[in-house]
Amino acid sequence: MNDQEPKEEIVLDEDISVALESDESKIILEQGIKMRFDSIAICRNFAKTMVSISFTAIPVYLGLLKLVLHKELTTNIGTAIIIILPPVIYLIDTIIFIFAYLPKKFNVYDRLPDNTEEERNRVLRRRLLLIHIGTSIFFIATIVAILIITFY
């Protein structure tokens, strides 16, 4: 006698099928599939949010700088470059996030699903790369801005 429940099998592709042992396994698999398909939208939403944050950081920095700068500060070319560096970096960062947000041409191949998956992965990798670069630049600009406001 076999007391085990029969395993439910889900076919993901013609070559891949998964035997599920419990309802929990089925739920986890469904969540994984949903995450996989939502990943491009999630990246776009993050990039859209970071465009706003990076662009907003420019007037915030300039406002804080105005509060802490002394009026008798003499500005030479070196000082001006140092002071203007964070807004320039934030602007570059905003442009990078705009490129990550913009829709990218996505070729869908009717007869070749592997090529469609490869194309989707290529678009996702490009977005993730731009998001990683943009986030790193954002943190660098923020650290530079904090150092300038604190020690200048």
How is this structure best summarized?
The chain has 152 residues and is mainly alpha-helical.
Describe the protein's architecture and organization:
With 152 residues, the protein is mainly alpha-helical. It has one domain. The chain has 3 helices and 2 strands. It has helices at residues 23-68, 77-101, 113-151, and strands at 8-11, 17-20. A two-stranded antiparallel ribbon has the order 1-2. Strand 1 (8-11) and strand 2 (17-20) form a beta hairpin. Helix 1 (23-68) packs parallel to helix 3. The longest helix is centred in the first third of the chain and has 46 residues, at 23-68. Residues 13-17 have low confidence and may be disordered.
Topology, pairings included?
Elements: E1 8-11, E2 17-20, H1 23-68, H2 77-101, H3 113-151
Helix pairs in contact: 1-2, 1-3, 2-3
Low-confidence stretches: 13-17
Portion of residues in beta strands equals 5-15%
Give the overall silhouette: elongated
Biggest pleated-sheet summary: 2 strands, antiparallel
Average pLDDT figure: 80
Give me the side-by-side strand order of the main sheet: 1-2
CA distance, first residue to last residue? 80 Å
Rg over CA atoms, rounded to whole Å, is 24 Å
Order of helices and strands: EEHHH
In total, how many domains does the architecture comprise?
A: 1
Helix content: over 70%
Q: Structural class, from secondary structure content?
A: mainly alpha
Secondary structure: number of strands: 2
By DSSP (H or I, 4+ residues per run), the number of helices equals 3
